[in-house]
Every structure is written in C-alpha cells, then in structure tokens.
Known about the structure:
The protein is α/β, with parallel strands linked by helices. It has a domain at 2-195 and 226-253 and 299-318: 3-Layer(aba) Sandwich (Rossmann fold). It contains 13 helices and 13 strands. It has helices at residues 11-23, 62-72, 86-91, 94-116, 120-125, 158-177, 199-208, 228-241, 258-272, 305-311, 319-332, 334-341, 344-349, and strands spanning 2-6, 27-32, 52-56, 76-79, 127-133, 181-186, 189-190, 213-216, 222-224, 226-227, 247-250, 255-257, 287-290. Helix 4 runs parallel beside helix 6 (158-177). The longest helix is centred in the N-terminal third of the chain and has 23 residues, at 94-116. Mean pLDDT is 95; it is low at 350-354. Bound molecules: nicotinamide-adenine-dinucleotide. Nicotinamide-adenine-dinucleotide binds next to helix 1, helix 4 and strand 5.
Amino acid sequence: MKILLTGGAGFIGSAVVRLIINSTNHSVINIDKLTYAGNLESLQSVVDSERYCFEQVDICDSEKINLIFSKYQPDVVMHLAAESHVDRSIDGPADFIETNIVGTYQLLDAAKNYWNSLAEQKKSSFRFHHISTDEVYGDLENPEDLFTEETPYSPSSPYSASKASSDHLVRAWNRTYGLPTVITNCSNNYGPFHFPEKLIPLMIINAINGKPLPVYGNGHQIRDWLYVEDHARALMKVISEGEEGKTYNIGGHNEKRNIDVVNLICDLLEKHKPEKPKGIIRYHDLITFVDDRPGHDLRYAIDASKIENELGWKPKETFESGIEKTILWYLSNSDWWQRVLDGSYSLERLGKGE
Ligand code: NAD
C-alpha cells in the first residue's frame, strides 16, 4: 500500500511510520505542518528509506492537500494530524477548531474528490482512516462501565469536542458521499518519543531533573493506558482489515489512577536511577498536588472486544512492562528530550540549525 499519513512527526504518527518502514513493505508519505508537537528527530531511523517521504504541509491548506493527492495517488489515508493537548485546548481553543475540525474537513473533501476520480478496483479498496480518542465519550460514572462503540458522545473539553466534531464529519462523508471511511477511538497512549508536556514523560523528566511532579486534584482520575507501539499495530490491522464504515475502540485494559502511575514511575526510577539530583532523598517526595483542571473527566475505560474478536488484535504490553520500557527509553535517550526542552529540535527543522 501507498499510505498518505498525516501527523507523522507527532508521538503516535511517528510510531506508525516507524512500524510501516521497519515491519511492512508499504510506503508512506508523511504530511505534517510541524507544529511545536512535530519532531522529525523521532523519525531519524526511517528517513533514509526509499519507502518514506515527507511533505511539510498544513492539512487546512486545501490547495496543497489536493496537490498532494494528485502527486502521490495514495491507496489509503491515515489521519492523525491534530492539536492534542487538553490543557492547551483550554487556554487557546482556536487552533483545535482550525486543525481538528476545519483541517479534517479539508482532508475529507480532498480525499473525496480524489476517490471519485479513481478506477473501480482502487476505489473500492480505498480507505480514509480517522484516528480519534476515547475522550469523545466523556467520562464514566460507574466503576464497572466501559466505553463501547455505541456509547453516546459527550465530550468535556475543547480538545475532545473538536475530535468529536471531526468524527461526525468523517461519518457524514461516509453516509452522504460513500467515502470508505473507518474510525478508531483509542485510550491514552504512552511510550518513547512522547512530548514532555503529557503526564508520563513530564513526570519521568521532572523526576530525573529533581523538579516537582505536579498531580491534578487528588490524582484519583483514572485513565486506560496503552503502549504506543500496541496502538500502532492496532491501526495497521484496521487499515488493512477493518470494515468500511465501522468504528473500532482500542484500549489496553490498563485502568490506573494518575497518582498510582506517578508512584510507579517513582518506584521504577528508584530501581533504574537510584542516584538523584542533589538534595533529593526519594523521588516520591517531589509529588505536588495542584489545582484540578477545569472539566476534568474522572474515568475513561475502553471495551476493546470488537477489535480483539473481529480483527484478532491484542496489546502485547501490560502497563507494568510498557512503563518500564518507557522509563528505560527516557533514561537512555536524554538527547532527544533535552533538545525538545531547550527548543533546538524546532530551530533545526525550520532550517535555522544550531
Ligand atoms: P501529537 O500532538 O504528538 O502530534 C500531532 C502531529 O500533528 C504533530 O506532528 C503536528 O505537527 C501535526 N499537526 C498538527 N496540526 C497540523 C496541521 N494543521 N497540519 C498538519 N499537521 C499538523 O499527537 P499524538 O499524541 O501523536 O496524537 C495523534 C492522533 O491520535 C491525534 O489525532 C489524537 O487526537 C489521537 N489520539 C491520541 C491519543 C494519545 O494518548 N496521545 C490517544 C487517542 C487518540
């Protein structure tokens, strides 16, 4: 397959690109605007492949997106480009509306025009795979409840509302225009190359640097964690075997309270990096409770039985194995995150060098 993938310089997109190049024969065209979250250094292991190419394009730029479709003639689209950080969506929702809603519309429209021009065989195998989040479902009240593909949408934050809107657009393009779409809604991801504003990398890096570990409210919010490489494998299953017009939930069966995640990170750092910055006795002493985020959802948990039963996907990592791998990765790849923290990754990608 020739895969047109948006957002490939981001956390999950780069994991999918690495999986495609390292473990399949498919080729990939990575379309990314390179916002603060886009980091080409996450793709160093694949840039020399003849099956990889990169175009710095904003998905909201319809003219350029139409040109990309006619230039590359992709077999499928995997759409991951988005503004993705809930806190940023609360401080400044405009970029979320623009990229996640308007950008998805522009991409759908370009995909529809291109798809209409295809010969019958290529037309029927074409897929527009929209990658979304379980946050569109809102939060769960009863401890035994799980999000299924039928759970009504009830987003709480500007981020999740913009993703919910984009999911609705994708379904409308399927129902109204017949565009062969598929949607996946996944739980919280973690793993290597994760931008250090998100909970897990922030805690690991702050602890290594002897900085406070800020936990929202009482830390009892529950998230269902999935190792990013397991998500990438699920996405490849769906793009290859997923049924047109369907939605698949993806999750790791790893419900954890935020405070328990932070405590586990501290325990594992005690094991793997017992020498600490001056003045720090225990990593746990760095934990600091801060005012809760407005509209903070209490619990997310995914029922992933549909993708497991219909497509035979299962996560390989437990939370315990995945978090240990992640911590070891951050300990041995400080160059990657130091360059994110000091901003040099973005100077280089803008051609300004160091
Ligand atoms: P990310 O923020 O790490 O990466 C997003 C990428 O999109 C970046 O490379 C950025 O440069 C690019 N981008 C942003 N705006 C763009 C635009 N207008 N045009 C082109 N490129 C643009 O995000 P992520 O965590 O890798 O998430 C990827 C997708 O998966 C998102 O759609 C997100 O909603 C979804 N998702 C994320 C999680 C998670 O836990 N991170 C869970 C479920 C679903």
